[in-house]
Write a structure and sequence with these properties.
Radius of gyration: 20 Å
Shape: globular
CATH architecture of the largest domain: 3-Layer(aba) Sandwich
Order of helices and strands: HEHEHEHHHHEHEHEHEEHEEEH
Largest sheet: 4 strands, mixed
CATH superfamily of the largest domain: Adenosylhomocysteinase-like
CATH class of the largest domain: Alpha Beta
Helix content: 40-55%
Strand content: 15-25%
Distance between the termini: 24 Å
Strand order of the largest sheet: 8-11-10-9
Number of strands: 11
Length: 309
């Protein structure tokens, strides 16, 4: 619902707003209904949408004009860099115009990229991505993965429009990372597992603002908190049975589920929606993974300030 306040602010400032979900697991129908009922913004999201529908909605949000006869949106306020894969379809479109070729969706093992390439193959028309990028005046990024994407495309010369990093604003770092984690982490773990946190041993990877906020919250409710830096070279070899694995981040940047399941040849057991139990082969031991590693906390006022810049 924090996003709803952002939409109301954009509309009050004179903008026409289109919106899609940035996280297929965190979307709530009552939020989409509130936006649609207000009649001020177009909502392209629903609870339980698949990854393929997520990317379809993202493209519809970006491509379909807010004003008839115009090409797409003037600006993007995004959380996680989701707009960039579709934004970069301009490059594939240019190749298609040149020689009629498209990248084959089965050419990659990454599920998310397959959805994007399939979307391109199904709906390419030679001009829409070019028109979209010409129309776009700029983008603001809310979270670390989006900032990384911006830096990568800038380094390779593929950045198609100016971008503002709102992820590193002090209001984001302190309110969202430190204070926001106090509530969202515990709320998610208790909601999905009904586990009692007090007395548990909990390992927090990384002790920056996010890690600090999580550690303070967990310690405050009575957990015995261990801290370490998130160095993949020193990743733990042994994981205790029934460990709860979750991540305050965007998509699988913290927990790579796509590689986790085949790597350990685990059996996946659905405990409840957005909570799975991964059983390791040859034993009954396993770990609990929440929302595929996509727990989120929100702070969006910086997006509004960035779009006004």
């Amino acid at each position: 619902m924090a996003l709803f306040s952002s939409f109301e602010t954009f509309v009050a400032l004179g903008a026409r707003v289109r919106w899609c979900s940035f996280n297929v697991f965190s979307m709530q129908d009552h939020a989409a209904v509130a936006i649609a009922k207000a009649g001020t913004s177009a909502a392209l999201a629903w609870k339980g949408e698949s990854s393929s529908k997520h990317w379809w909605s993202t493209e519809q949000m970006m491509i379909v004009p807010t004003v008839p006869g115009e090409d797409g949106c003037d600006q993007f306020a995004e959380d996680g860099g989701d707009a960039y894969p579709i934004h970069k379809n301009k490059k594939f479109e240019e190749k298609y115009i040149k020689d009629g070729s498209l990248l084959n969706p089965v050419s990659t093992t990454k599920a998310e990229l397959r959805y994007i390439l399939q979307l391109l193959a199904d709906f390419i028309d030679k001009i829409k991505y070019t028109c979209m990028t010409l129309k776009c005046k700029g983008v603001s990024h809310e979270i670390t993965s989006g900032v990384h994407c911006h830096r990568e495309t800038t380094a390779t010369g593929e950045q198609l429009s100016p971008a503002i990093n709102v992820n590193d604003y002090v209001t984001k770092l302190k309110f969202d990372y430190v204070l926001g984690c106090h509530h969202s982490l515990l709320d998610s773990i208790v909601y999905f597992t009904d586990a009692m946190i007090g007395g548990k041993r909990i390992l927090v990877y990384g002790y920056s603002d996010v890690g600090r906020g999580c550690a303070i919250s967990l310690r405050g409710i009575g957990a015995y908190v261990l801290l370490t830096e998130n160095d993949p070279i020193n990743a733990p070899v042994y994981i205790e049975n029934n460990t709860i694995a979750c991540d305050i981040g965007h998509f699988e940047t913290g927990i790579d589920n796509e590689d986790l399941e085949p790597l350990f040849a685990v059996t996946v057991v659905n405990i409840k929606p957005q909570a799975i139990y991964l059983v390791f082969p040859g034993s009954s031991n396993g770990i609990i993974v929440l929302t595929s590693g996509r727990l989120m906390s929100c702070s969006f006022i910086n997006q509004i300030l960035a779009q006004l810049t």
